[in-house]
Design a protein that fits this description.
Length: 76
Amino acid sequence: MTPAQNTAFQGATGHTATGVGDIVSSILVVLLFIWAAWLVVQVLGSLRRNEAIELDLLFVSLRASALIWIALYLVQ
């Protein structure tokens, strides 16, 4: 954003654009963590009902972990 746009944004909202961007990024990362936890719980339920094997849990956990690492890298 140009300096004039930054000034207008801060004047209208009372916050800097980077501060708002950081908040939005943080919320998205928290939602990603919640989604990953929900995914692992679902696979654990499938394991208990004998609808999945242990490798399913491993692969789901690895994929969720990779997405979290990528998201954390992009947020920095």
